[in-house]
Design brief:
Layout (H helix, E strand, L loop, with lengths): L1 E3 L5 E3 L5 E8 L7 H17 L4 E3 L17 H17 L6 E10 L2 E10 L2 E7 L25 E4 L2 E4 L4 E4 L4 E4 L11 H7 L4 E6 L7 H15 L3 E6 L15 E5 L2 E5 L8 E8 H8 L12 E4 L23 H26 L3 E5 L4 H16 L7 E5 L7 H14 L2 E4 L3 H11 L8 H21 L2 E5 L3 H6 L12 E2 L6 H14 L3 H11 L20 H5 L2 H13 L4 H11 L6 H17 L1 H5 L27 H8 L3
Parallel strand pairs: 3-4, 4-5, 10-17, 11-12, 12-13, 18-19, 18-21, 19-20, 21-22
Antiparallel strand pairs: 1-2, 3-16, 5-6, 6-7, 8-9, 10-11, 13-14, 14-15
Helix pairs in contact: 1-2, 6-7, 6-12, 7-8, 7-12, 8-13, 9-10, 12-13, 15-17, 16-17, 17-19
C-alpha cells in the first residue's frame, strides 16, 4: 500500500504501520574505542537478528562520555574514527538503521555527535547544540553546532556527509529526528522542531549521570515528550563502563509512543541491555493529521534512506483488551474524575435551564444506574434535595423480577421520588390502534415500548418543570443499539461518552467508595446482571431471555473496535490483526471477524442516530459527539469498510 505524505511524496507503508525499534546500552570500557566498537557490533548483530529496523545507542558510546581531556587528543580521536569505520563496514549487508554516539573532529573543533549508519554508509551526522554544564562542562571539549550553517557537510572516510543539527531522516515508511542528551530539556528542544517538521520518531541518545529520583524523572519526561510531540520516542542512556570518578550511569533505555511506555530496560545492570518494541506510525500520524503544528515548513534538511520496509510483523508490544479502562494504579482517580465531569456538566445544565426536577427512567440495568448516581451527585452540587429527582420505573413485557427489585432498592437508597408506571396496557392499546399483533415480537413490538417510556418521561418532565436525563452509553451509540426517538432521546445525556466496559468500573468504584452502604450491595448485583433491553417476555423461569451481547456481540470486542477505529484511525484489517493478539485464547479468529463485520456495518448505518443525539459531556479521548468528536454524513457508505473486513484472510 502507498500513502501520500504531507510533502506530496509517495511513501510505502510497512505492514500495519509498525516499525520494529530497539534501544541498546552496550557494556563499554572508558577510553577503549576498539573494545567498545566490538560491543556495539555485537548489539547490532543481535538486534538485527530480531528484525529491528531502527537501533539507537547512547551518546558518545563509542568512546564513553567520561573520557575527559582524551576527547580532545588527536590520537584518541583517530582511534575512535578507526573504530567507527569498523562499525560502519559491518552494517553493509544489513537492512537496519543504526544511530550511535561518537566525537567528530571538524575544522579545528570537536563535536559531540549522533552518527546515522545504513548499509555500510554514514547517511548523516547530527552534532550537539546545547552542551551540558554539569556534572561535566562539555564546553571544555566540544563546540556547539549552533555556529554551523544549514546544509553543512563533512568529509568522512572519503565521502561527503551531511553535518547539521537540522537533519530529518526519511525512509519509505517513516521519518526520524535526533536530539542529543540534555538538548531534550532545552526551551527550544530540537525534538520539538523535528516533530513539527514531520519526524514520526524522535531519537534521544543520552549520557546523563544518574542521581536519586533521576530514573523516574527520565521515564516521566520521555513519556511526556512522546505525548507532547505526538511521536514515537526512543531514549538510550549510558550505563556500565562509564567512569564513576564523579558520577554513576544507570543505563536506562526506553521506547515510548504518544505518552505510552512500550518497552524499557532495567537500570544498573553490569551487562549489555536492550529493549525492543514496535512503534505505530499509523497512530502517530492519526494524532497529527488535524493538528496544524505538525504540517512542517521545510526548515530542516531531509536525508533520504532507501530502507526496505519489513513485511513481517511479530508484535511484542502490549495490546490492551480494554483500551477505555485506565491502568489499575490510576483507576480509582480516573473513575472519580469521569464521575465528576458527568455530574458537574449535568449540574450546569440543570442550573442553566432552571429545572425544578430531574426526570429519569430506572430499569435496574447498568446504564440507568450510573445515570441516577450522576444525577444525585449533580443535585448535591446544585444544593437540591434528592427528592427533586423523579425516578420512574416502567415495567413492560420483558421486565424481570431481578431488575425490577434492584430498581426499587436503588431508588430507595438514594432518597429520590419514586414512581412506577407500567406500560403494558398503553402498549397493547397502541398495538390495537396501529393494527399490530402483540404476539409478533418484532422490531415494532420492541420499539413501541421504548417510545412509550420516553413519552412518559417527557410528559412528566413537562408537568414538573423538569429535565429528562438520558441513560444511553457510548457503546450503544456506536452500534445504534437504541430506539430512534425512544431511549435514543433525552434532554441531556450524561453517559454519552462512557462505553459499556468502563461503566462497570465506574459503578463498582462508586459502590466501593461511596458512604451509601445501603446502595453498595444493590450496585454490585446490578453489575452482575446480564445486559438486556428487556423488551421481550422473560423465560418461564423468570430469567432474562433477551441478552444484548448474544444479539450484537460482546461489548468488550465492540469497545475495542470502536477505540481503535475512531481514536487510533486503524483500518479493519489492522483492527483484526491486533484483536487477534489482544484476545488470543478468548475469541477465535472467525468470532473476531464476525463481530468486526457487525461493528462496521452498524457503525456506519446507524450514524443518523448520532447526528441528532442530545447534548452530553465528553469524558475521554474517544467520543462520537458530532460537534466535538466523530462527524460524518448519515449516509456515508459502509460498503468499502465491510468489503475490507470480508476480505481479511
Amino acid at each position: 500500500m502507498e500513502l501520500e505524505s504531507k510533502n506530496h511524496k509517495k511513501v510505502h507503508r510497512m505492514k500495519y504501520g509498525y516499525i520494529k525499534s530497539a534501544v541498546a546500552v552496550p557494556a563499554i570500557i572508558t577510553g577503549d574505542c576498539s573494545f567498545n566498537a566490538r560491543q556495539i557490533i555485537d548489539a547490532i548483530d543481535k538486534l538485527d537478528g530480531e528484525m529491528a529496523e531502527l537501533i539507537l545507542m547512547p551518546e558518545l558510546c563509542l568512546t564513553s562520555s567520561s573520557c575527559g581531556d582524551l576527547l580532545t587528543h588527536p590520537a584518541f580521536i583517530q582511534q575512535s574514527m578507526e573504530a567507527l569505520r569498523g562499525i560502519v563496514e559491518t552494517t553493509f549487508n544489513k537492512e537496519v538503521i543504526v544511530v550511535i554516539g561518537a566525537p567528530i573532529a571538524h575544522k579545528n573543533s570537536i563535536y559531540n555527535c549522533a552518527i546515522v549508519i545504513y548499509k555500510g554508509n554514514i547517511k548523516g551526522i547530527v552534532p550537539k547544540t546545547v552542551l551540558r554544564s554539569t556534572p561535566t562542562n562539555e564546553n571544555r571539549w566540544f563546540t556547539s553546532s549552533s555556529a554551523l550553517t544549514k546544509g553543512s557537510t563533512i568529509n568522512i572516510f572519503g565521502e561527503t556527509v551531511p553535518f547539521d543539527n537540522r537533519l530529518l531522516f526519511t525512509t519509505p515508511a517513516y521519518s526520524f529526528g535526533i536530539e542529543i542528551g540534555n538538548e531534550a530539556e532545552a526551551p527550544l528542544a530540537p525534538g520539538a522542531t523535528m516533530a513539527a517538521q514531520g519526524a514520526d520518531i524522535i531519537l534521544n541518545p543520552s549520557a546523563e549521570a544518574t542521581v536519586a529520583g533521576g530514573i523516574k524523572a527520565t521515564k516521566t519526561s520521555v513519556e511526556e515528550r512522546s505525548l507532547r510531540y505526538k511521536c514515537g520516542y526512543m531514549h538510550a542512556g549510558s550505563g556500565w563502563g562509564e567512569s564513576t570518578s564523579n558520577a554513576a550511569y544507570a543505563g536506562y533505555c526506553s521506547i515510548s509512543e504518544c505518552g505510552d511506555m512500550l518497552a524499557q530496560t532495567e537500570p544498573f545492570k553490569t551487562t549489555a541491555q536492550y529493549a525492543i518494541s514496535e512503534i505505530d506510525i499509523d497512530r502517530v500520524r492519526k494524532k497529527r493529521i488535524t493538528d496544524s503544528n505538525f504540517h512542517g515548513n521545510s526548515t530542516v534538511t531531509e536525508i533520504e534512506i532507501p530502507q526496505k520496509p519489513n513485511d513481517s510483523c511479530a508484535l511484542t508490544r502490549p495490546i490492551k483488551q480494554m483500551p477505555f479502562i485506565p491502568e489499575e494504579s490510576e483507576r480509582d482517580g480516573r473513575m472519580e474524575e469521569i464521575f465528576n465531569i458527568q455530574a458537574n456538566a449535568l449540574a450546569r445544565r440543570i442550573s442553566h435551564v432552571h429545572a425544578s426536577t430531574c426526570v429519569i427512567g430506572i430499569s435496574g440495568g447498568l446504564d440507568s444506574t450510573l445515570a441516577l448516581l450522576v444525577t444525585a451527585k449533580a443535585c448535591d452540587i446544585c444544593d437540591k434535595p434528592h427528592n427533586d429527582i423523579i425516578a420512574i420505573t416502567m415495567p413492560g413485557f420483558g421486565t424481570s423480577e431481578r431488575t425490577h427489585t434492584n430498581a426499587h432498592k436503588l431508588m430507595q437508597s438514594l432518597g429520590v421520588t419514586i414512581m412506577e408506571i407500567p406500560i403494558k396496557e398503553a402498549c397493547l392499546q397502541h398495538f390495537k390502534d396501529i393494527g399490530h399483533n402483540p404476539d409478533k415480537h418484532d422490531i415494532t413490538y420492541e420499539n413501541s415500548q421504548a417510545r412509550e417510556r420516553t413519552q412518559v418521561l417527557m410528559d412528566i418532565a413537562n408537568q414538573r418543570n423538569g429535565i429528562v436525563i438520558g441513560t444511553g452509553d457510548l457503546s450503544e451509540l456506536a452500534l445504534g443499539w437504541a430506539t430512534y426517538n425512544g431511549d435514543h432521546m433525552s434532554m441531556y445525556s450524561v453517559n454519552c461518552s462512557v462505553p459499556k466496559t468502563l461503566m462497570q468500573h465506574l459503578v463498582r468504584w462508586y459502590a466501593t467508595y461511596s458512604n451509601n452502604r445501603e446502595a453498595a450491595a444493590t450496585l454490585l448485583d446490578i453489575i452482575d446482571t446480564p445486559i438486556s433491553p428487556e423488551l421481550v417476555p422473560a423465560g418461564q423461569d423468570g430469567e432474562i431471555k433477551q441478552k444484548t451481547e448474544d444479539l450484537v456481540g460482546p461489548y468488550e470486542l465492540h469497545d475495542f473496535f470502536l477505540y481503535n477505529f475512531v481514536h487510533n484511525g486503524y483500518a479493519p484489517d489492522k483492527i483484526y490483526f491486533i484483536a487477534q493478539h489482544a484476545f488470543k485464547g478468548k475469541y477465535d479468529n472467525s468470532t473476531i471477524k464476525k463481530w468486526l463485520l457487525t461493528f462496521m456495518r452498524r457503525f456506519f448505518t446507524q450514524q443518523f442516530k448520532r447526528s441528532c443525539a442530545p447534548d452530553g459531556p465528553v469524558t475521554g479521548n474517544c467520543n462520537l459527539n458530532s460537534h466535538t468528536g466523530w462527524a460524518v454524513p448519515s449516509d456515508a457508505s459502509h460498503t468499502p469498510w465491510c468489503e475490507t473486513t470480508n476480505n481479511i484472510e
